[in-house]
Sequence to fold (384 residues):
Amino acid sequence: MKKLVIYTIVSLLFFSCKEEPKRTDYIINGTAKDIYNGVRVHLNETDEKGRDKVVETQMVVNEQFTFEGKMDTPTLYHITVNSVPGKLPIMVENSAIHVDINKAKISDSKITGSKSQNIYETYQNGLKDIEKEIGRLNSEMRRARSQRDMAKQAELKTQIEAVKDKQTQYTVAYINDHNEDIFSLYLIQEALKDPNMDVEKYRAAFNNLDASLKSSKDSAEIKLRLDNLYNTQMKTANLEVGKVAPNFKAPTANDKMVSLNDLMGKVTIIDFWAAWCGPCRRENPNVVKVYNEFHDQGLEIIGVSLDGSRGQKDPKKAWLDAVEKDQLKWTQVSYLKYFNDPVAQLYNIKSIPATYILDKDGTIVAKNLRGNALKQKVEELLKN
Fold:
């Protein structure tokens, strides 16, 4: 009998000390003090374009609400409550999470039960001063724009870029210091939403992650996106102001192959346009005026048409009709392959009209100038 009692006690101790199984779903239990029955509470996510999307909606009943679901990886959502201004960021992971909504100020609500939430709040606390500075500079920028103060805008742009660089340095340092934490992977994923992200720094931070993190399915997708973005940026790095414009060959309407290097003048404009492009056609009279005024002084223009869209029955006819109607007297080339045109892809053209302005050595000195700005730049270059 004594042995049985001892066995029973040992068994109870064993089972009471056994680690609870890891949850495979999340439950968010919310308390909503002083919020009426029937008021809707929303759990939202933000897509890559910054748009909010409702994941789940529940109603408050007796000052309580609950959300349930499953997460592959911890993800930043936010909670909104009808009639309560603002939104509450919450890191959702597969665990039991409690939210105590502060009706007076939702950002002061308390969240417990999410390890990722604690990490997120620690990270955000380190960002507070940087985000305040960005907010202040953005307010000044809006004021400068309303006053059309171009000098102030240029000054503020430089300051904003410097503070954003500080933000990137802070985030990358945080990732490197927490390279075993899945939240670091989340930060890289969030950074990918910014088309101007410093891909080299984030790519290096990703490569520094612990092997256990890099072996997941999400990591493989993030790595692919980082690599693709890196390759794109390396390609466009050769198209920045100060770089020599890449040479190309393309066919004229008579199927004669001509090259950029053969056509360059003292100043050269590469003009990407199309017959179907309304803004291009509206800008053409300005380009014609610049060409007529400065061609005898050494200006050359090469028009690269992106005609060939599916909506054109006869792309070549549309192209040539537009050339004649708009009186475009300079060299025109086109593969008639729409945005798949090899020259457009070489120059990473995503929208038109687009222009590259080159000096006598073929160096890119400006991009996408129109109207009077284009005229002034050509005139300046021809004087030098």
